[in-house]
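Schema walkthrough. Field components (list of strings):
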Amino acid sequence: MLDFPNDPNMRLRNSSVDGADGSQLFEDTSGAGSASQAGFPGQSLLSDPMSNLAMAYGSSLATQGREIVDKNLDRFIPISKLKYYFAVDTVYVGKKLGLLVFPYMHENWEVSYQQDTPVAPRFDVNAPDLYIPAMGFITYVLVAGLALGTQNRFSPELLGVQASSALVWLIMEVLAVLLSLYLVTVNTDLTTIDLLAFSGYKYVGMIVGVVAGLLFGRPAYYLSLLWCCAAIFVFMIRTLRLKLLSEAAAEGRLVRGARNQLRMYLTMTIAAAQPIFMYWFTYHLIR
Amino acid sequence: MAFTLYSLIQAAILCVNAVAVLHEERFLTKIGWGVDQSVGGFGDEPGIKVQLMNLVRSVRTVMRVPLIAVNSVCIVLLLLFG
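Field assembly_structure (string):
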């Protein structure tokens, strides 16, 4: 019935094996022996056949239990897909943060693919990730607590209130974007987690604005917030343009037609909602 | 601005209730949003109104029974904890 836009064309993100073959998501840093139980100090414990049996039984029970938990958890939260979004490294984070604050010189915004699966974020600076939004959210909550503390309005419950408010608005924004994508029937391969990542990128701008305001006062806050709002507006437009609009319109040629116009309006609205949120969440922190 | 996750859940429950309460023949057909009026052409452009009508119909079909349970839980929680 409800055919959300990510079903037909979804590129599989969990098909890359993080083992020794193919494209690895994570490097294998487990070192040498991982499952050897030899060399126990308590030799007398091992020589008893009954305790051998008990240990074998216990370990098989534990493995079974872990498999059941993994299987059930994977039904609700797609863990293997989430792993893709956290496969980042320092170089990628640095480049992406630079891109979020200064997107004007970047030219190629396409996400590169490797045999029909998107390349992991550590190899492509255009791919969305969840590391920066998650860290940005936590840093925003802490910086908000700091800012409220400088105004003597701080109490530990406020941290929880700020965190849950920001989380609620994030969820509502992602739901609103999903609903509008469904209504406009855009055939895109944007998944929900992608939208969550894009909505989370605005926390970087908010943190920059609030820190500048704390260090240098209100004019610095307004200036840096203006700069970050413009930057994130351009960033969102350039990123979403490739995903939401049709091929011709994405290349910049003017394509007439009601549908393309609607998609353009949708892209503009999503991009324009980011600066509004950024201002709304931070103006009460700088007095 | 002091939202909690519970107020989001409450708002969602209220919205879904509002959509589920719309009666098919007394109201939706009267304003032209009935299910028999949404069969458009078979092109690839359903249009926003048709999508909305489909969404309303889907929500009403799917959420009828679970809403009974969710509303009861919400009422009990409100009575107990205010």
